[in-house]
């Protein structure tokens, strides 16, 4: 291996808490004390983008992980207790979810490729495009809806593992859908590693106790249910992930609808506010308009408002803009809400089919009854959206009649010529105008709308309110033959085939019910899979002195690594208190039924480099500051001399592991004693480095992050 070449060096304004290399490209993600997330390129270490902390997401980043395809970064925040998935190309937040406990470490792994069952699954995945239309992009955020789809990524299962305080451990399939909540871990997680064959999860935790110093412990949990049912888990997680993205899509569509509705209010209010302020008569706006409608003569104030402030031209413009807002709400309901709900129904029905295949999916906790409830809830939501469409229709009719009438009245006031076809006004039209006036200009306190001061679009707006209150003016179903028939027939009332209908509730309320029910049917598998995971090994490693300096936790050893080819978990750690010049490597098989030779080895760092200075052949002793796996055969370490002198820098070195495992000795653990008490019995190997090291000049190196695939490392002091 050639000596190392330094590519760049950079001084950063804030101290770095975390650094992780992208698994696929020469990019490194850094999180700093200020709460920023930075992405740097290897070449000259230039910054690609930075994501500043904001109020909604949070300021304290506590852990970082890349999705195995390198397209998404996940990071967790302490102050808001959220996990956020961020798009690497555009630095956009695609998805976030709350977690119960503070996340102290995360690991994102991908299932190894050999499972051939996945190919048949990929074909099934493509079938959906035959049955479902492509979801239309959302108007204002065209990128967003495609982004939501980007979250799905590869079909191959990848799992984001989160670990936190007091044994909190959760697995999220595709980084979005919670697939298991694990018990069986004690203490605060320091690092995690789920093996790529899904057979076991290794966790290193720190257990604090009141009397003693904190103790570092290693756990290995048996996750064989996931590996045994891999095709089923993948298929289920995939469907659930689709459902989560669709719920996000519905949420964004509703937000767009609310914006369009607020536009209408703002525009009318602006015109009317001044008029109401200047008006000294006691009559209300509504009375003034009705007077004009009945007698054809306006009071001087109203005339001044219409002629001077609104003007004929302004009226036309106002009419057009309000009409376009209405029709954009209508479009959103038809093209987005309805097609999103249809897709939801499709995936839920597929899930229900899976749940009925009991021998395969019952161990994973799929419950057909819960999914049935979810399907019903989506049906209710579709009904509510249809009702909103009808309300918009009738509102638009009245609204057009009103504007047409007002236009004619204004032409008369300005003594312009009125075209004969505009002049015709039937009794029906007059009724529409009167309807519009009573509906939109009422100033009765109980109907007072918080958003519109003198004008309200309450009929449509009430559906878009995120509250539990009943609708102010629910649709009138008197004389509706179907409603009467349904209410008088007992079998129909109790029929499970009809979707329940909430005539008194808003669209938002029904959406919340739907989300709650879907969440319920998504939660059950996480509990069932979680209870199947059992602790196989729990082994205290060593105690650590309670440190005074608050160093960021990510960098501390032990570090974990999963060797995919040989199916091993590696744990690297040091015991600075007992033997500062040794580095320990423990390895365990991911398959818990296998045992491993030389399970625990110590490397003596004393005789690594025999270099002489000034001709004197003194050998210096080294202690290890940080060690990370470069690839399956190599360990990258940062070393410092036991007695540090001013003119010597710290050392970055590559340790080959093959000589370490050449020894025959086995270490036999005495379960009655702690590991650090029997450290003298651990077989010691010495390794000599030829040219695989370099001194880091003028730098108090402390931590290193490496990526063996791209052959890069980054050192922080």
UniProtKB/TrEMBL annotation:
Designated gene of the protein: Anapc4
Domain of life: Eukaryota
InterPro entries: APC4, Apc4-like_WD40_dom, APC4_C, APC4_long_dom, WD40/YVTN_repeat-like_dom_sf
Record-annotated Anaphase-promoting complex subunit 4 C-terminal half WD40 domain positions: 560-717
SUPFAM superfamilies: TolB, C-terminal domain
A Pfam family that the UniProt record links to this protein: ANAPC4
Protein name, entry field: Anaphase-promoting complex subunit 4
Keyword terms of this UniProt record: Cell cycle, Cell division, Mitosis, Ubl conjugation pathway
Keyword Transmembrane part of the UniProt annotation: no
Residues annotated as domain Anaphase-promoting complex subunit 4-like WD40: 19-110
Species whose genome carries this gene: Polyodon spathula
Domain Anaphase-promoting complex subunit 4 long: 218-416
Record bears the keyword Cell division: yes
């Amino acid at each position: 291996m050639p000596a190392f070449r330094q590519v760049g060096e950079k001084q950063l304004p804030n101290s770095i808490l975390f650094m992780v290399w992208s698994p696929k490209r020469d990019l490194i993600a850094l999180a700093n004390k200020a709460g920023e997330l930075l992405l740097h390129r290897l070449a000259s270490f230039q910054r690609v983008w930075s994501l500043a902390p904001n109020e909604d997401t949070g300021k304290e980043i506590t852990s970082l992980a890349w999705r195995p395809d390198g397209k998404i970064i996940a990071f967790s925040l302490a102050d808001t207790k959220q996990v956020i998935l961020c798009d690497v190309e555009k630095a956009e937040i695609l998805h976030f979810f709350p977690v119960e406990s503070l996340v102290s470490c995360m690991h994102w792994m991908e299932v190894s490729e050999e499972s051939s069952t996945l190919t048949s699954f990929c074909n099934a995945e493509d079938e959906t495009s035959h049955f479902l239309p492509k979801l239309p992009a959302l108007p204002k955020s065209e990128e967003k809806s495609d982004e939501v789809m980007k979250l799905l990524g590869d079909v191959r299962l990848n799992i984001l593992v989160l670990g936190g305080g007091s044994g909190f451990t959760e697995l999220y399939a595709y980084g979005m859908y919670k697939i298991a909540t694990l018990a069986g871990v004690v203490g605060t997680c320091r690092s995690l590693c789920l093996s790529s064959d899904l057979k076991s999860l290794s966790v290193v935790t720190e257990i604090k106790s009141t009397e003693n110093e904190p103790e570092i412990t290693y756990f290995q949990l048996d996750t064989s249910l996931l590996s045994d049912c891999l095709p089923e888990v993948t298929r289920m997680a995939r469907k659930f992930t689709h459902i989560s993205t669709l719920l996000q899509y519905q949420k964004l569509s509703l937000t767009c609808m609310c914006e369009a509705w607020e536009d209408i209010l703002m525009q009318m209010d602006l015109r009317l506010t001044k008029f109401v302020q200047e008006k000294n008569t006691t009559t209300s706006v509504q009375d003034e308009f009705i007077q004009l409608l009945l007698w054809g003569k306006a009071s001087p104030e109203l005339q001044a408002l219409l002629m001077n402030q609104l003007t004929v031209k302004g009226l036309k413009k106002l009419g057009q803009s309000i009409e376009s807002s209405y029709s954009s709400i209508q479009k959103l309901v038809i093209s987005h809400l309805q097609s999103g709900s249809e897709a939801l129904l499709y995936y839920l029905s597929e899930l229900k089919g899976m749940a009925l295949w009991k021998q395969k999916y019952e161990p994973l906790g799929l419950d057909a009854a819960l999914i049935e409830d979810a399907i019903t809830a989506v049906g209710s939501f579709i009904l509510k959206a249809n009702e909103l469409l009808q309300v918009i229709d009738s509102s638009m009719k009245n609204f057009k009649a009103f504007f047409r009438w007002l236009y004619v009245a204004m032409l008369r006031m300005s003594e312009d010529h009125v075209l004969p076809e505009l002049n015709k006004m039937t009794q029906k039209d007059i009724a529409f105008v009167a309807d519009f006036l009573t509906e939109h200009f009422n100033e009765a306190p109980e109907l007072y709308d918080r958003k519109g001061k003198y004008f309200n679009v309450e009929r449509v707006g009430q559906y878009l309110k995120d509250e539990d209150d009943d609708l102010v003016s629910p649709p009138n179903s008197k004389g509706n033959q179907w409603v009467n028939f349904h209410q008088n027939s007992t079998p129909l009332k109790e029929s499970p085939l009809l979707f329940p209908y909430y005539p008194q509730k808003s669209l938002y309320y029904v959406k919340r019910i739907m989300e709650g029910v879907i969440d319920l049917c998504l939660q059950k598998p996480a509990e069932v899979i979680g209870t199947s995971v059992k602790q196989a090994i729990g082994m205290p490693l060593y105690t650590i002195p309670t440190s005074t300096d608050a160093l960021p936790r990510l960098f501390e050893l032990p570090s974990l690594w999963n060797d995919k080819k040989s199916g091993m978990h590696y744990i690297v750690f040091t015991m600075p208190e007992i033997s500062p010049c040794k580095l320990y490597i423990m390895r365990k098989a991911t398959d818990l039924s296998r045992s491993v030779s030389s399970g625990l080895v110590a490397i003596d760092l004393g005789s690594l480099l025999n270099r002489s200075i000034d001709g004197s052949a003194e050998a210096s002793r080294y202690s290890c500051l940080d060690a990370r796996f470069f690839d399956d055969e190599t360990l990258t370490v940062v070393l410092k001399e036991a007695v540090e002198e001013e003119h010597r820098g710290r050392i970055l070195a590559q340790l080959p592991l093959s000589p370490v495992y050449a020894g025959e000795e086995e270490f036999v653990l005495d379960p009655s004693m702690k590991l650090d008490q029997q450290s003298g019995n651990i077989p010691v190997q010495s390794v000599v480095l030829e040219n695989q090291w370099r001194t880091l000049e003028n730098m108090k190196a402390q931590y290193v992050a490496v990526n063996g695939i791209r052959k890069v490392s980054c050192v922080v002091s």
